[in-house]
Structure formats: C-alpha cells, structure tokens
C-alpha cells in the first residue's frame, strides 16, 4: 500500500482476458503498478502476498463472483478501494455493492477515458485520505506534546522549593505551588481560582500584584518587591513581574517569595548590638568632648604649650562621633518601633518656617537661596511628634544644602493633598542617578562621585527620615537625576 499518494498499486480481476489486459494497459500508461487475476481465488492469493491500494473487480465471474470477492477484500483490508466493472444486466447488483462500500462502478462496455476518470477520482480520494490521516496524526502529536509540556511545567512548579504565585489580568490566582501554601501558612486543601485577597490579607501586597497583573508596572525596571509579614513572625520578600506574551500583551503576573526571617533576625541583632555599643560610647565621648572644650577655653588668650589647633580638630572629631552615635541610636529606636512619640497637634507651616529660618545661615554660607512656599499660608494641623518632623525636614534641607553647589536654590513647599499634607524639598543641585534612588535610603549608603566625594556625612540621614516617615504611616518619594537637582516628596497623613 502507498504511504504517499504519488502512485497506486492496482489489482485488476476479470475472467475476460481482453478486458483484463485492456485495463492493465490503460492503467500502466497512467504509470500505476498493476497486478492482474483471472478469478476471485487468484485475486485473494495475490492479496495474501501483496498489498494493493485499489481493486477493479468484474462482478460476473465463474466461481467466486465479484460481490463475494468484494466482501472478502473488505474483510481482509477495508482500506482497499474497490471499483466494480459490470454489464448492464447486473447494474442493480453493482449498486448493491456500492451500498456495501464499493467506491464506484463502471458499466461495460466502457471507454478508456471513463476508466481513467474513475481511477483518477479514486486516486484523489486516497490522496485526501492519506493527507487527512497525516494531519490527524500531527494534531494528536501536538496535543500530546502540549499535554506533556503542561504536566512537565506543573511538576517543576510543584517541586520548586521557592514559593510561586501566578495571577491573571483580573488579579485572580490561577496557579500556586505547595511552597507558596506552606510559606503563607495556608492548608494544602486551599485551591487556586479566587481573588488574591482570599489568600493574602496584606492590602499593599494585593495592590502591587494587581498592578503587575494588569501590566501597569514598568517591566523593564527592576522587579518590584514587597515585604510581607506572615503570622506576625515570618518575613517574606515577594518579587513580582508582569507576564507579557509574544504580542506584547499582559497576561497576568508571576510572583516569587523568599523567606527573609533569618536575615531580619540578624538585622535586629545587629541593630541591638549597634545600639548597645553606641550607648556605651556616648557618655565617655561626651566627657572627652567637654574636657577638650575646657582645655581650649583655659588655653585661649594664654601663651601655652598646648597646640590649640590640634585640640580644636580633636574636639570637632569627637563632635562628629557624638552626632554619628546620636544618629545610630535614633535609627535603632525607629527600627525597633520604640520611638518615644511626643504626639501633639502641630502647625506644620510654623514648624517648616522655623526649620527654614534655622538652616538659612548654613545656606547663606554657600550663597544659596533657601525659601519656603506655603499654600495656603495656614496649613491644616498634623498630629505628630515635633522632634520627628524636625528630624525629617531638617535632614532633607541639610542634604539639599550639602549636595548643591554654591549659589544654588532650594525651595521647601507644603500644601494639603487629599488626606495628606505634601511637603517637597527641591534643590537644583548635583542630583542623584536613578540607579541609587533606592540605595540611598539604606543605612550608610552614600553616593561617591566627583561632586560628593569630599562632602562628609554618615549615610544615616535618609534611613532615619524614611524610618520616621514610615512610622507615621506616610511615604517618601524621590525625583532626581544627575545635574538636574532633586525633589524629595513627603506625604504625611493629616
Ligand atoms: P549623608 O548625607 O550623611 O551622606 P544621607 O542618608 O542623608 O547621608 O544621604 C545619603 C546619600 O544620598 C548622600 O551621601 C548623597 O550622596 C545622596 N543625597 C541625599 N540627598 C541628596 C540631595 N538633595 N542631592 C543629591 N544627593 C543627595
């Protein structure tokens, strides 16, 4: 049997030799392979040895007639196409044969062209059948491949030690692996299919994932992260990304989770250690600082052996150390959540005015113009700790002065913004490259470039600012680029 439709092998069965040979000649000219048999038995013997695609049978033969032979051929191989040749007298039988599955019939006597047409049509049918079978096989293979791929991905996800969550564009969970259930302290019986809020109660987290699911985040930027606290004592760092298909459409989001509890504990131990050491150092250093001041005071105006310049330097250094220790202690307190809030109702406009007035001297020493814009002039009251607010805006204004050149302009603006008060500290100074925008809020991080290299600092100012803003349920945002200056925007709830 052919497995392509290019050529056919045809068996011609007729007891009339002339017809048999005539048909054979016509078919051979059509470049088909032809086998011939003079009776049904001979035909069956041939079919026992050879596979054929098409059989042309005379209906009326001595011994086994065409009808019986047709039935035997069908029993043998129902894929063989059968064409019946018949005299007019047996046309009903031919129709009967077709009812039983014969493909066509040719009444005798027939023209060669008639035979050619019928055979060509049978050939075409066979070709289409082979093609359809090939397509079917291909489809089955593709489906099987897809199935295998799907189960492979599922198995990989299921055995992944990292917690993984996948959402669709509506923020519904479509996939979560056992590591996710375990990380979120959910039972094994929890299944996907609901809104994310049904699994994770943290609103901020759900909001971040929803934005990612809708493709509202910049996928070229670093994957956004979110720190989640589970059951009060387990810390997870979630990192998410929108899933974009080949047509650049967002399909949902994928989020992975890392357990950072041990890092947090270590961080806490480190903070406690730093706080302890700072505390122990502060009193002796303050004593040294005071004693140096006394030595300087006694020596001033007298001719003495004391090198006043050296002592002045030593006093400055101890002062810097004392303020570093102060910053460290502040930070430890903020991070431990134990900051002693002296909560009061505060006129933020007045507070900003006093900070700006106080810092003006410093700005003037660099010929900088420091100004305050309040709109409206009388701001709503904030309920907050004035020391915390002074620390936040004092640090931001000090930074604006420090990291701007001579003659720069610095503006502090405040205005109500919905349920918040928005305070912006803007300078047209050196600016900060976007790649540092997150890092500068980390402890001790300082940008070292040609502009900032010789400016002294501890790298603790912004972490203190952020810690305080966070503790007041506010937020801080930075817009800045190198050479363009910086704007720190603080939102504080009224
Ligand atoms: P410090 O000022 O003691 O170095 P901060 O935490 O206050 O520490 O600031 C961290 C870093 O952020 C600074 O070293 C500086 O490089 C950068 N920075 C902060 N504010 C500004 C600003 N207004 N303009 C440019 N750079 C700034």
Task: Please outline what is shown here.
The chain has helices spanning 17-29, 40-49, 66-76, 91-99, 112-159, 178-183, 203-213, 261-299, 308-335, 348-364, 386-402, 461-471, and strands spanning 9-13, 33-37, 54-58, 81-86, 104-107, 163-167, 173-176, 225-230, 234-244, 250-259, 344-347, 369-374, 381-384, 409-417, 420-427, 475-481, 485-493. Helix 2 (40-49) runs parallel beside helix 3 and helix 9 (308-335) packs parallel to helix 12.
Commentary on this structure:
- The protein contains 12 helices and 17 strands.
- It has 494 residues and is α/β, with parallel strands linked by helices.
- It folds into 4 domains: 130 residues, Rossmann fold (3-Layer(aba) Sandwich); 100 residues, Beta-Lactamase; 72 residues, Orthogonal Bundle (Helix Hairpins), CATH 1.10.287; 150 residues, Histidine kinase-like ATPase, C-terminal domain (Heat Shock Protein 90, 2-Layer Sandwich).
- Strands 2-1-3-4-5 form a 5-stranded parallel sheet, sandwiched between helices. A 5-stranded antiparallel sheet has the order 7-6-10-9-8, with helices on both faces.
- Strand 3, helix 3 and strand 4 form a beta-alpha-beta unit.
- The two termini are 87 Å apart.
- The relative contact order is 0.05.
- The mean pLDDT is 89.
- The site of adenosine-5'-diphosphate has 21 residues, from helix 11 and helix 12.
Widest sheet, order of strands? 2-1-3-4-5
- Going by helix content, strand content and strand pairing, the class is alpha/beta
Q: What compounds sit in this structure? A: adenosine-5'-diphosphate
Name of the CATH class of the largest domain: Alpha Beta
C-alpha-based Rg, rounded: 45 Å
Taking the alpha carbons of the first and last residues, their distance comes to 87 Å
Please describe the biggest sheet, giving its number of strands, its sense, and whether it closes into a barrel. 5 strands, parallel
The name CATH uses for the topology of the largest domain is: Heat Shock Protein 90
Number of structurally distinct domains: 4
At CATH level 2, the architecture of the largest domain is 2-Layer Sandwich
CATH superfamily of the largest domain: Histidine kinase-like ATPase, C-terminal domain
- Percentage of residues in helical conformation: 40-55%
Q: Runs with pLDDT <50, length 5+?
A: none
Percentage of residues in DSSP E strands? 15-25%
> What is the averaged pLDDT score?
89
- DSSP E strands, number: 17
Q: How many helices in DSSP terms?
A: 12
String of helices and strands: EHEHEHEHEHEEHHEEEHHEHEEHEEHEE
């Amino acid at each position: 049997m052919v497995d392509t439709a290019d050529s056919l092998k045809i068996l011609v069965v007729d007891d009339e030799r002339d017809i048999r040979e005539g048909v054979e000649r016509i078919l051979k000219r059509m470049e088909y392979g032809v086998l011939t048999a003079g009776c049904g038995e001979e035909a069956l013997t041939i079919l026992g040895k050879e596979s054929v695609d098409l059989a042309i049978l005379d209906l009326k033969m001595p011994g086994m007639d065409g009808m019986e032979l047709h039935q035997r051929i069908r029993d043998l191989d129902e894929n063989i196409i059968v064409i019946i040749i018949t005299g007019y007298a047996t046309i009903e039988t031919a129709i009967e044969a077709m009812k039983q599955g014969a493909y066509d019939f040719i009444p005798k006597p027939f023209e060669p062209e008639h035979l050619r047409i019928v055979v060509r049509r049978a050939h075409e049918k066979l070709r289409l059948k082979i093609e359809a079978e090939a397509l079917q096989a291909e489809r089955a293979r593709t489906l099987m491949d897809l199935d295998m791929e799907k189960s492979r991905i599922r198995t990989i996800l299921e055995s992944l030690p990292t917690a993984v969550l996948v959402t669709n564009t509506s923020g519904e969970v479509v996939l979560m692996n056992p590591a996710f259930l375990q990380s979120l302290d959910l039972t094994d019986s929890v299944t996907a299919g609901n809104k994310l809020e049904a699994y994770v109660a943290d609103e901020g987290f759900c909001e971040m994932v929803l934005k990612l699911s809708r493709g509202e985040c910049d996928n070229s930027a670093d994957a956004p992260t979110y720190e989640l606290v589970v059951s009060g004592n387990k810390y997870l760092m979630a990192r998410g990304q929108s899933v974009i298909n080949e047509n650049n459409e967002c399909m949902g989001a994928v989020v992975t989770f890392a357990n950072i509890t041990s890092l947090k504990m270590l961080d806490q131990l480190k903070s406690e250690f730093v706080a302890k050491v700072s505390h122990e150092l502060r009193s002796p250093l303050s004593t040294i600082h005071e004693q140096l001041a006394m030595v300087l005071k006694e020596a001033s105006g007298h001719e003495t052996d004391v090198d006043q310049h050296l002592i002045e330097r030593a006093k400055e250094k101890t002062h810097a150390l004392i303020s570093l220790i102060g910053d460290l202690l502040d930070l430890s307190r903020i991070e431990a959540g134990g900051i002693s809030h002296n909560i009061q109702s505060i006129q933020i406009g007045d507070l900003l005015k006093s900070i700006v007035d106080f810092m003006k001297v410093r700005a003037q020493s660099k010929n900088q113009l420091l100004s305050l814009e309040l709109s409206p002039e009388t701001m709503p009251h904030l309920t907050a700790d004035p020391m915390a607010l002074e620390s936040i805006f004092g640090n931001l204004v000090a930074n604006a002065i420090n990291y701007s050149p001579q003659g720069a302009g610095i503006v502090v603006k405040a205005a109500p913004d919905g349920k918040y008060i928005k305070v912006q500290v803007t300078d047209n100074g050196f600016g900060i490259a976007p790649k540092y925008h997150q890092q500068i809020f980390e402890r001790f991080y300082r940008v070292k470039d040609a502009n900032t290299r010789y400016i002294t600092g501890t790298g603790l100012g912004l972490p203190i600012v952020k810690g305080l803003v966070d503790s007041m349920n506010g937020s801080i945002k930075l817009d800045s680029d190198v050479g363009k200056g910086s704007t720190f925007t603080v939102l504080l709830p009224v």
